[in-house]
């Protein structure tokens, strides 16, 4: 049972940074699109 818990924690720790970078990229993209819409 403990091994499953350790595997779950490691899996989340390895996958979470990937999702975080995607969210940051999407937010920057959204800001750039909003700026271009407002400018032109």
SSE string: H
Separation of the first and last Cα atoms: 58 Å
Report the structural category. mainly alpha
Task: Give the integer mean of the pLDDT values.
Answer: 78
| Uncertain parts | none
Spatial extent as radius of gyration = 18 Å
Task: Characterize the quaternary organization of these chains.
Answer: single chain
Helix share bin: over 70%
Number of helices: 1
What is the 3D shape? rod-shaped
How can the largest sheet be summarized?
Answer: none
- Beta-strand content bin: under 5%
- The overall strand count is 0
Can you walk through the features of this model?
- There is one protein chain.
- The chain has 40 residues and is an all-alpha fold.
- 95% of the residues lie in helices and 0% in strands.
- The longest helix is centred in the middle third of the chain and has 38 residues, at 2-39.
- It is rod-shaped and about 55 Å long.
- The model has no long low-confidence stretch (mean pLDDT 78).
List keywords for this structure.
95% helix; 40 residues; single chain; mainly alpha
